Amino acid sequence: MSLHVLTGGAGFIATNLIRRLIDLGETVFALDDMSRGRPDFWAPLQDQPRFRSAIVDCADLEAYRTALDTTVNDGGIAAIWHLAANSDIPAGIADPRIDLQRTFLTTFNTLVLMREFSIPTLNFASSSAIYGDHGETVIHEDIGPLEPISNYGAMKLASEAQIRAAVEAFLPKANVFRFPNVVGVPATHGVLIDFVDKLRATPHRLDVLGDGTQRKAYLDVEELVDAMLFIAAQAQGRHNVFNVGPPDRGVTVREIAEAVRDRVSPGAEIRYGTGGRGWVGDVPRFRYATDRLAALGWRPQHDSIGAVRRAVDQIVAQELGRR
Ligand SMILES: NC(=O)c1ccc[n+]([C@@H]2O[C@H](COP(=O)([O-])OP(=O)(O)OC[C@H]3O[C@@H](n4cnc5c(N)ncnc54)[C@H](O)[C@@H]3O)[C@@H](O)[C@H]2O)c1
Hints:
Layout: E1 3-7, H1 12-23, E2 27-32, E3 51-55, H2 61-71, E4 77-82, H3 89-94, H4 97-116, E5 121-127, E6 138-139, H5 151-169, E7 173-179, E8 181-183, H6 191-201, E9 205-208, E10 215-216, E11 218-220, H7 221-234, E12 239-243, E13 251-252, H8 253-264, E14 269-272, E15 287-288, H9 291-296, H10 304-321
Parallel strand pairs: 1-2, 1-4, 2-3, 4-5, 5-7, 6-15, 7-12, 8-11, 9-14
Antiparallel strand pairs: 10-13
Helix pairs in contact: 4-5, 6-8, 6-10, 8-10
The chain binds nicotinamide-adenine-dinucleotide.
Nicotinamide-adenine-dinucleotide (NAD) is lined by residues 7-8, 10-14, 31-37, 57-59, 83-85, 87, 102, 106, 125, 127, 179, 181-182, 188.
């Protein structure tokens, strides 16, 4: 039994990861500042003896250190899964300090404390946003130049650079997962829940940002967690970087809007905006090369459209349950 620290532990992806780690017999200490996290995601875990939690701002080094100090046991901490970040990309465009604090400084502080506490492994939630806009080019892990077009992507890339330097200086192992768009439940943000909620509010009409031609890869959150655990167990290097996603061309926003409309309010009119981007900093299309992960032995079961359809069903059930 090892102790795993999860930052951003009350978020969408962390909630799924915590369940899997506990099922695997691990002990989990979840930290979250609740800027976007949901305390109710922790409620079902409170009676679980292998689960601990604290509301902590990981950008505050002293508070973060105190949280680790009070929880670390004789066996030490096996790994930090660093998922804390600002997940609201437009908010970070409006105020870049949000990404500096929540996305970069949380990484910087995580590395400071990993050194202090001699924590051997960092598992980092990175993003396709670090690549920037490569159009139709299939993006493999070593492509360049890396020119992110959002503050979020810039701070994820800066985090990756800081992690690389830490591996050189003191950190025994870092696994860097570059996520695509991740879908599933419990959904708190993203295009699917936006469309579901819009259609429940105005069942006759769905307004879409951009012209609907944006095309991206989507991965089911349960499969993402599976891939993270697989890489953490199998990757042998000290600095392991993986694109995680389906090998397909992705799904257009138009296809997503139609899938949600057909499921939630079949008669609704879909009204598209103009331009190929949903918002400033939105990468209109990307396509991953996932050969590195396939060579390690992991492939998703669902393609992008399959993941989207499954998630729409799950999110509709989630939102009806909240009525
Ligand atoms: N969901 C996706 O499609 C996607 C895609 C690429 C990368 N990622 C990355 O995966 C990770 C998890 O994303 P998610 O979708 O679960 O988002 P999320 O917003 O649900 O989870 C992030 C959590 O971090 C917390 N947090 C933010 N700043 C913090 C701070 N200073 N201290 C402590 N906690 C803080 C938030 O409250 C939130 O609960 C993030 O790092 C995100 O950038 C997600």
